[in-house]
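Example (one chain per record):
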Amino acid sequence: MKPGIHPDYRPVLFHDVAADAFWLIGSTAATDKTFAHSDGNTYPYITLDVSSASHPVYTGQERKAKTEGRVAGFNKRFAGFSSSK
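Predicted structure:
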């Protein structure tokens, strides 16, 4: 590898503010903020609006999809109407 052209890879503290969850992960993401983690060390700090801890798809809180299809829904709505007169 050429020296001086690669970003600095270091531990970075990510914080999901919606779920108040923290992750300490190796990253090259640039930030000027720092935060003292529960282990007593200070790390570069990045806030997140959504992560796997707060997003409904990952937490299992998403809306349940309808089990019936479009045709079944149509037939259910118009079951009382007859096309023959």
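Caption: Residues 10-63 form one domain.
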